[in-house]
Amino acid sequence: MGDPAEKRAPSATYADLVAAPAHLVAELVDGVLYTSPRPASPHAHAASVLGMDIGSPFQRGRGGPGGWHILYEPELHFGDDVLVPDLAGWRRERMPDLPQVAFFTLPPDWVCEVLSLSTASLDRTRKRPAYAAAGVTWLWLVDPLARMLEVFRLGPQKRWVVEQGFSGDAVVRASPFEAIELELSALWLPEAPERPEGEAP
To answer: What range(s) does the Putative restriction endonuclease domain occupy (predicted)?
Structure first.
């Protein structure tokens, strides 16, 4: 993604979010409107593969336990905050049927943010506390450039606790989806070959 644009003063509202251009991802955090362009290929690839790898066994029950609703980029409303994670999941015991709505007010059980160089700060310093305040139980931060997956669980006083950390091409069982193995290598695009010194790009 490119650098998120911010609208700080006066405090942004949902009307500002609705007025944002359709090609941008618009979010409200603490009265600030953030708009970001659609993600570049490493980000989009990681989110797409992860959605398929988790959605098939946990949403559709193919080779896994089922029991979840997994969605791409749902709009979440937590009071005045409006967040759009890359992926989110609700246990069916909390949300038996997926409602026909434009946005969700019931906090997910799990959210996943795929980081890019320009949005990592927003995801870590603004959105992560907002997810905790809303009571989201699990947060994944996936960094396709560093090739890392960080798993956080909500602890006492609504503070994130690092539950697991994985990197490289490991095959992992990551909470709360430890019933299946995830191949991290499938999330990463091949590294661009280094150009010989002096060769023009």
So the answer is: 26-184
CA distance 29 to 41: 26
Cα 181 from chain centre: 19
Q: Does domain 40-187 have CATH number 1.10.287.110?
A: no
Dump pLDDT digits (tens) for 168-183. Answer: 999 999 999 999 999 9
pLDDT digits (tens, 9 = 90+) for 107-129: 999 999 999 987 899 999 999 99
Question: What CA–CA distance (Å, rounded) separates 130 from 143?
Answer: 20
Residue 60 corresponds to which tokens in the numbers above? Answer: 């559709």
